[in-house]
């Protein structure tokens, strides 16, 4: 039986993490299909068809799907699910919202944030903020799985799957969309950036984050933050890295004025190289840092920016 | 309107957990337990609704062993009116908890159910969404702000790109995110008063719910450790290492 990946998209392209979800799905069954539900989602369906390893794209057009409301998308997935062994979504804010609803409607369990596919029914997933790894086995007929994108190498492009139009399921009439307040940024998206510069409470203000923006722009990096920095209002909520924020695994993660609480480490300790800048040489962040620099960030960050500029 | 809040007993977020030597789970003996932090936010939100006159009664629900009484007491001390404990020593997975919650919802008929977006032990992030599905209700996940008016809830949600606003019909399920509110501490007089508030104890069987786990945990292991790194003395040394040793810039 084939595996169905449910793709989030912006109407133009599917999210980058769909290619990671496809790679994970390919380890669960012989064939991968991708569902692109939306309103005017033709271009997004084409972007899904271009992912290598996708055998077929199902495009469901319905005005109700325009804003990805769980109440409206879940019934469509539930209708398709019996044709599949697995339904897979990336563990982002869309997947986390929709997958459990689908699972409960089907009366099956969900495996959350799988980081490894051991076999088609067995998965490894982090628990306790990544301080333990559980291997879980599902006995359900249809397996609903969200996967952590950073743990699966993205399937490459260049494919040309067929796109099949399918019937929508309409609106459940329970919820409606009332606008978004999205953070605008020219910088690379946090979860797919090769380099991430992250700031914590040590920055002391939103104004001071500008210093990190300058550094990030020099490096072509995405910008992240600790919960404390978000709670204090220095930066928007979508910057939060950690157990209850975003999980990142870039080639380089630079933690500045971040102490390294376990909840923060949960979101970044799979980064290839970690740099920490902190004035407290006992800060736990140094226990995971490959390169630690002890000192005042207000002096060191401008120095670092200048040194990178010189090349 | 009644508001039902779910409060889960979890290992305190400050505790450094240890994986059991036999790889069956995590050491929970003699470990400090607390209310799941997201559930403190849920309780706080419900109490504020009552204080504003939007809710008439706040009921705190917990499922698990007898000690979950303490977690319910904490909610009562914060200001909830009464508690319901579904007592079970079995491993309760999200679908089972959602079914127990549904059975209680059927009995109590609340207008809102508020749960945490995730429990910090199992990190599943499922229960609220599953409950809404079982009830056929709408759901506002990862709530950053709520506004209850005329049979609808306006929910500001924390999503990948920032914030999103939705309007959902009541009755509804809400899952809390970190910025929804700052939970209060219970005062000593309120802790004393909470001792007199009623807690009803039920069994899963009596609610007609099969709680048998659907996922089997084969093993629980330590994550791989990172090799310890080095301290560099200067920015110049750092840049040199990043260029020539790590090759990342
Ligand atoms: C339920 C729950 C979920 C959570 N989820 C997350 C999450 O997803 N992500 C997350 O990050 N946290 C999360 N937390 C919070 C976490 O426990 C910590 O409180 C938080 O990560 C601390 O942020 P911080 O390191 O910026 O602040 P602090 O711990 O206050 O550290 C600030 C650091 O800056 C350093 N510093 C100060 N001034 C300077 C200077 N001039 N130069 C250099 N260094 C300086 C200090 O030495 C200190 O180490 C969660 C907590 C709970 C309870
Ligand atoms: C290896 C392993 C062994 C385990 N063994 C046991 C065991 O022996 N006994 C045991 O009791 N558990 C055990 N658990 C924990 C149990 O599996 C989890 O509690 C369950 O999977 C629920 O997941 P979650 O809490 O992460 O759900 P989430 O969906 O993340 O929870 C979200 C919200 O739902 C509500 N909620 C969830 N559960 C409850 C609850 N019980 N009561 C009230 N509200 C709740 C809360 O509001 C919570 O914030 C074990 C877990 C693992 C991984």
Order of helices and strands of chain A: EHEHEHEHEEEEEEEEHEHEHEEH
In spatial order, strands of the major sheet of chain A run 5-9-4-1-2-3-10
What is the mean pLDDT of chain A?
97
Q: In whole angstroms, how far apart are the ends of chain B? A: 58 Å
Task: Characterise the protein shown here.
The complex is a heterodimer of chains A (311) and B (249). Chain A has 311 residues and is of the alpha/beta class. Helices cover 24% and strands 29% of the residues of chain A. A 7-stranded parallel beta sheet of chain A has the order 5-9-4-1-2-3-10, sandwiched between helices. In chain A, strands 13-12-14-15-16 form a 5-stranded parallel beta sheet. In chain A, strands 6-7-8 form a 3-stranded antiparallel beta sheet, with no helix packed on it. In chain A, α2 links the parallel β2 and β3. In chain A, α3 packs across α4 and α5 packs parallel to α8. Chain A starts with a strand and ends with a helix. In chain B, a hairpin with a 2-residue loop joins β7 and β8. The relative contact order of chain B is 0.18. A 9-stranded mixed beta sheet of chain B has the order 9-8-7-10-6-1-4-5-11, with helices on both faces. A two-stranded antiparallel ribbon of chain B has the order 2-3. At the A-B interface, α3, α4, β5, β7 and β8 of A face α3, α4, β7, β8 and β9 of B. The structure holds flavin-adenine dinucleotide (FAD) (2 copies).
